[in-house]
From TrEMBL:
Species of provenance: Bombyx mori
Family: Belongs to the WD repeat WDR24 family.
UniProt-listed GO biological process terms: cellular response to amino acid starvation; positive regulation of macroautophagy; positive regulation of TORC1 signaling
GO MF annotations in UniProt: zinc ion binding
Full protein name: GATOR2 complex protein WDR24
Annotated spans, Disordered: 449-476, 541-594
Skewed-composition ranges (Low complexity): 563-585
Amino acid sequence: MIPSNTICVSEEGPANALALNKDATQVVIAGRNVFKVFSIEENDFTEVCNLRVGKNLNLNFSSIDVAWSTIEENTLATAATNGAVVVWNLGRSGRSKQEHVFSDHKRTVNKVSFHLTEPALLISGSQDGMMKCFDLRMKEVARTFISNTESIRDVQFSPHQAHTFAAVSENGNVQLWDVRRHERCLQQFTAHSGPVFACDWHSEMPWLATASRDKTIKVWDIHAKPNLEHTIYTIASVGHVKWRPQKKYQVASCALVLDCAVHVWDVRRPHVPLATFAEHRDVTTAIAWQNDPNTFLSTSRDCSLYRHRFSEAAHPVLWANPHGVCVSARGDVTHAAPDCPLPALHTNPASDRYVPGLGRKQPTAGSLRPQAQAALERLFPGGAASILTRYSGEGRPPCCVVACAKEYKMRGLPTHELAEHNAKVARAYNRHMVGHVWEVVRCVYGRPPPREPPEREPPPPPPAHTNSNAVEEEPLEEVEQWAETQFHNSGVLGMPTLSIYIPPHKYKIRHDEGSGWVSAASAHYVDVETADWTLPEEAFPLRAPPPAHQPSILDTTHGRTAAGGASPGGSSSPGSGSSGSNGSACTAPPNLEQTSSAYPGAATLCRAQPEEGESGPLWVVHEALRPHVEPAPLLALALRHHADLGDVQTAALVMIVLHEHRSDLFPYIDEGLQEHWLLGYIEFLQKHKLWNVATEVVRCAWLSSVWSLSQQSSSVTVCCGRCGRRARPRAMCDRCLPHPDLCAVCRQVVRGLYAWCQGCSHGGHLEHMRQWMEKHQLCPAGCGHHCQLG
């Protein structure tokens, strides 16, 4: 939205430069495809002359820069892309206004500038690294200045010394020349770390403002030796800079890339612009102030020419947060607040708009009233002073991360035991999510030892039976009618839920029960030694017996010899000869070791060593079964999550504790991220002075870039305790070489063990220093240093 007092005109193409006449009533814009003169009216621009006319429109009409003489009303000069400097006369009759063409430069001319008091002098700076001063009366080159640099980007005559001009180059240097001496420059200094694109002299002070690609604007005092006075920090490379008239500390700038706005800065508050004009939709290419400090013009690559009024500016400081808070790694809190905060300025409520991201109303362009505008400019520099307050964390409980780092274990035990210990440590400090990660590691990578088989208890002696194949029962007495029974076959092994008689020695009697008739389903009792395992034919569908080379595990478990009955896993048929219990043939039991090996991950069936003439019972050796879900990608995702939350301790230590299982995570965590976790955790430990733990992490590291840190020796700089000069390693001080080292306590020559303080470089006999430090805290040499004897 364009403010009401801002006027705009569209162009045929983007303009590279603009210039005002001496009365600031007309403006000329120049570019590759546009070259026009406009008259500045109260509410509009009026085209006066189009200089890009004629039959021969060559490269002389494609301009990079334009200048208007401050003395002659009708004299213009342009810098062409083909290296020509063209002089134009607006008072010339006819359509063509071209007066003269200087073709002395070999490469593109970047800047042209008229002398402030001599209308016949014109100076130019070119890409060939040379500057040429032209005499418009003689129409020839008066002097040539060689800068010995790659290229000259801007030249400006000084308003304080008539014969001095400044030139800035792409190597970051600024040169001051006397126009009467072309042999060498008066002064040269390095102003920026990158190319300098523009410069401008202050009208009242001997200050030179320079703009560079290093995103800074610097103000230099050129009164005697160049001295840096102020530095302004911007967000993009600065392409142009102009001092605001009648304002000592204010300067306007526009960016070379990225930023489309024009900013007005107060050099006393270098981080926040005083005013911002954001009407352009593309990068601003040129700015020029009118004689009035409240009005300036700008042109852009968006093919537009704007006239801005300072009353329509937006002020970022009004919605910026003046307070700042920061928390250190040790838990200290620092608060910065303005020393002199800006008072509540009266704005126009209709011009405010609500910004969802900020949660408050943001003043837009032109929101300040004239009185508030003046108050802001007056109070703006004082708002840069801040009060810094630090709140120390002394007396609070120690950091849980540091406490865990002291108690964690990284090696010396199996993975699951280390994970179990670290989980207990994490939960002790209320880090339950971290403890859960350690528990997962313990469960996934833990391998408990196999349990021993249970001891065999001798079975009770069997009672005397008249029939070995029949269960000892009395005549049955049904408790309920069979048709009304809810679970018809809810007994053990599918037997009907009926009341049976269990002998006293076969059933363990509880205190609240009696012996005798009980329910078979509730008793869960089957006399294996006397039960008849023959199933009715309708219990299972008829099928052929399994082949002898593929026995069933169930048949193997419950198989019987030829002397006993048929196996419950087998099927009986009339034609197979297995319908009766007597004389039935059973398949021989298979090898248990072959059966267990055919099912990987299953329980292993083993038979106890039987006594002679007896069959041994079976027991099951349980093995730890791995989960069916692959744990590596899930664990890698959990470690990434903790690292993103800032917990590199958990991510690094889990990788260390995994040991040989660490390679499972390599496909999901690249080596660069692993190195980042380890180095981040080592840096955290060193910040908290946990040197031993940091060294242990380096020793346990599996990356060469990390464990190689242990191969780097620590260097200790030694300085002389007498003169304070730095001494060579394992050598005496060159200045104090004739004088031996004396003990700071007894003032005698030290022969033997010598103890010295790294802080003040004083020392003496080891025993003398130990006795002194037991009673005193300050250095015995009298330097006032608080020495500590390790």
